[in-house]
Amino acid sequence: MLVFLFVLGLAVGSFLNVLILRLPQKESLLGFSRCRVCKKRISWFDNIPLISFLILGRRCRSCRSSISLQYPLVELSGGFFFLFSFMAWGTNPSLWVYVAFLSVLFLAIGLVDLRKFIIPDELLIAGLAGTLLFFIFGFTDCRILSCSVFESVWGTSFFAGIFLAFYLFSRGRWIGFGDVK
After folding, report:
1. What is the 3-state composition of the chain as percent helix, strand, coil, each rounded to the nearest 5?
2. pTM score of the predicted model
3. DSSP H helical segments within 23-118, as ranges?
4. pLDDT of residue 135
């Protein structure tokens, strides 16, 4: 089970790389992966998370350009997030899936923000949708979190308000609007 979850996390990490690179560029998430340098389509056997990176020796098969370390690091992070979430919360399936989902989502948000200084609304909406689904369908053990949905919304709104005040007061020089969102 642990090996399966790790491999599943690697695959999710691979998809995170797609999100991280394509969302800020407004590129379609559908379609085949291409080399960032020569633009040649990457074959399925050269797109296996972590394994292809190692086999290809960190180089594109076509043009031999260097492949960023971001790819295997994000894939490994996805694998470890899934593994550790299950190990910590495995007795509550909905909770460990939610924790794994938030972990990889925050990784994607953080890397896009680090690279482009933006936070795509699509990632925030995915987080909101996942959280609402968790509260509606998956929140079966009220002892895990001691607050209600109302308290969660109030607390989030309070801190978003503080960030909004910083943003407005500094005219965007101290923090970006992504922090408010």
Report:
1. 65, 0, 35
2. 0.80
3. 51-55, 70-89, 93-116
4. 75
